[in-house]
Specification:
Layout: H1 2-18, H2 31-47, H3 51-63, H4 72-79, E1 83-87, E2 91-95, H5 97-105
Antiparallel strand pairs: 1-2
């Protein structure tokens, strides 16, 4: 996320240079850039998800584990960073916060429980 925010800031700086607008205020990663990046990432995450994925992600959110850790779709979600793996005293899984927020927006997760 930080890499994408920096890319957006660099695009703005390059635009100022091309337009020779050197008297503009400094470009910084601010809330508007962060909001733009978060929206783009959520759209990218949402593009490939189907109803069975939503069901699997909800199960992972509530149970902290999938039905089958060897299932190829689960592994795709894990490697795509939709699902995060934690290894401390136990092995458990949770949703990427952006994916969790997406499921709340879709009405799949209750706002109070998320």
């Amino acid at each position: 996320m930080s890499d994408r925010c920096c890319d957006k800031a660099m695009q703005k700086i390059r635009g100022q240079i091309r337009r020779q607008q050197f008297d503009q205020s400094d470009v910084i990663v601010d809330q508007s850039i962060l909001d733009e990046v978060v929206t783009e990432l959520q759209l990218e995450y949402a593009e490939v998800l189907g109803q069975s994925d939503f069901d699997a992600l909800k199960l992972i959110y509530t149970e902290f584990k999938p039905k089958d850790t060897e299932n190829q779709r689960f592994l795709d979600l894990l490697h795509g960073l939709y699902v995060l793996e934690y290894r401390n005293a136990l092995l458990w899984y949770d949703l990427n916060p952006l994916v969790r927020d997406l499921l709340v927006q879709e009405g799949i997760l209750d706002v109070a429980s998320a």
